[in-house]
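step: validate -> pass
step: tokenize input -> pass
step: predict -> running
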Amino acid sequence: MTLDLSRREFRRLLDLVYVGNWIMNAERTGKERIQEYDELQSKLFAEGAAADMPKLVNIIEGQAFPSRAFTEGGIHEAIMAYEDVAFFEILAEELARRDMGFPPIGEDNVEELGNRIDAYIAEFETNGIEKLTIEAS
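step: predict -> pass
step: emit ->
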């Protein structure tokens, strides 16, 4: 297979591969890591080094890795922004479902669930978690 990518498109592909591998492997260590993703990332970053993007790549013992310049160049800010949105959306849904007693969601209560989620999202947008409290049971 051959892909015809501009330099800019290839650079964006490196971002996507890094983010994808981050999602698949960030919480895994050692043998738990999915090696196929690490290998594909290494292969593509090696191409980046060959494509005159050496500032984005570190070669260690023949393996290509994203460089510090790459990882500190804004990619983690994008990951953190996504994680923040996902966190608040999941939290809002879980709290809304809890408030409703965790019923099966169907046509009769999906609108109520959506309204409750929207209310929590609005609260989080205004105050973050500042007003969130947890009571010991």
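step: describe -> Residues 76-127 form one domain.
step: cleanup -> pass
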